[in-house]
């Protein structure tokens, strides 16, 4: 349901809306798949205009559409693509959900969660990372690195630019 709620504003901006003849409310996807077909047609037309990305539409545990479009696929394999800062609110939301569930503490130093953290960053907390006050350089040292642990190690190898801000 959350993914459909996130996509709901898109329905009003990009077609597949309730104003299209013959389509019902896009948030109540029916078994006939007309709404999903509408999304597939829309995304295919955008792919022809240069759109590249992965799309997932789900209701609860049911995946209604999961497909990659454009340059994101190469030889039938999914490739990495630039998502830039769009990941920041998604990451923050996921982290705060872990906090809410009692699985993470914002103020605990990183070594509890990442034992390999260099000594320069042993006092950095998840809160510091989320608020961009960790002292990590603003250099993109993990550009092109798609494996999570390799990217983490590349970022943590950097020397601190400044003292940790509280």
Task: Walk me through the structure.
With 166 residues, this protein is of the alpha+beta class. It has two domains: 77 residues, no CATH class; 73 residues, no CATH class. Helix content is 33%, strand content 11%. A two-stranded antiparallel ribbon has the order 1-2. The protein is elongated. The N terminus is likely disordered.
The profile of the biggest β sheet is: 2 strands, antiparallel
Count of helix runs: 5
The computed structural class is: alpha+beta
Strand content: 5-15%
Q: Notable features of this structure?
A:
166 residues, two-stranded antiparallel sheet, 5 helices, 33% helix, disordered N terminus
Blueprint of the fold:
Blueprint: H1 2-13, H2 34-48, E1 53-59, E2 62-69, E3 73-74, E4 77-78, H3 87-100, H4 126-130, H5 148-156
Antiparallel strand pairs: 1-2, 3-4
In short:
Helix content is 33%, strand content 11%. It is α+β, with helices and mostly antiparallel strands and 166 residues long. The longest helix has 15 residues.
